[in-house]
Amino acid sequence: MSLDLLAWAERFVATSSVSHEGNAGIAACAAELLQEVGLEPELRTAEIEGISHRVVMSDVGTLREDSLSAGLLLITHLDTVPPGDPEAWTATGGDPLRPTRDGDRLYGLGSADAKVDFVCKVAALSDLDLSRLQRRVRIVGTFGEEIGLLGTKWLVSSGQTQGFGYALVGEPSELVPIHAHKGYAVFEARVPLEPLVPLPPCRVERIRLEGMSVHSSTPDLGRNAIEAALERLAQPDVLGWAELEGGGAVNKVPDRSSLALLTEDPRSAADPPAKAYTAEPLTSFHQAWRRLLARLREHRDPEFDPDHTVGSLGRVSLRDGHAVFTFDLRPIPGVDPLRAVEPLGELAEVECLRRNPALETPLDSPLLRAIGEAQEALGLPRQVATKATCTEAGVFSQAGIEAIVMGAGVSVGNVHRPNEHTRISQLLRARELYREVIGRLCVGSEGKPCTS
User: How far apart are CA 200 and CA 280, in angstroms?
Assistant: First the structure.
């Protein structure tokens, strides 16, 4: 049947699905989409850390006895990062959930990363004669990808991936298949604070520092507002500080932070703050952080861009007499993030909150071969690449499933920031490319598309 891909893409963008808020709304929308093309949706609920998440999936295709272990998973995460300041979404009139077309661009939160990809995959299935499929195909909309690949980890641990040998994972790549990507690790560093006593005559200056938000996989493309605050603390006119806050989602370079500084003012008659602290513990931590990043640049892999392990301070808050920094690292192969952060342990209590595996699928993978044949059939260049971010594909790879990452839209400098967008022409081409890939991998021995 004919499916209006763009209309459904706009519905998906307009449906809020921020990770920490749960995803019941977008899961219901995905289930409705599956029903429209004649597929039977199955909704499963997972309670994780007090949040109710839903995974939506549907199985299609007839089964052949010798292909039970080589089914194909079509994976797209339905959650998004928080949108940030609505006023920064100038392309959508200040509303990140207002899908807006401008020429070949569709703007809105999740347009590229990555829930609209689910629509492209459903559209591809709607173009196929599914009765001819001889390998099982399971399409899945996952949850909590942006906060630890929660949905995919649940799929694997609950046995939902048994019987599948391949996974096509949706992430923006401009339709270039990604066969390898970096790992990911999130840490918390608790820096003990030193009270400023006695408190000298001073004035309190509350300042707001501005940065530029980008995905934390490419931190050099942005400006980190937390680091700007730490740099201000190191200036010679600072006697101490009383407040520090900044950031949000750890996988975004923070674009704002706030700081209450104490500067010398013998004439000040203002009431002193209830609590004030010396700057030295935080400035020393910042210096150690910068040394860590410099050491990580010494080990390089030209297959990746950036070609080294990167890190980003994503969030800071005050808790129980500590400044608590949450940060991430994205290690290239061969770099152990746990060992990398050991020098920070001299200044802070460092704990690894989560660690996600890298991806390295062989270039001779049958899935990658099917993608290459599909590219040629559609007149696209046959190419393959690596990715600086970590995705759900690493979890599948660790479980013994050959995984490839691919999807419409630009990733670097576009996702996890205001005015996220995708190319409409690439959404339409993604539908065609997925259809060709599914046909070649799952139709049987003749290896030809089984379009209706």
Answer: 16
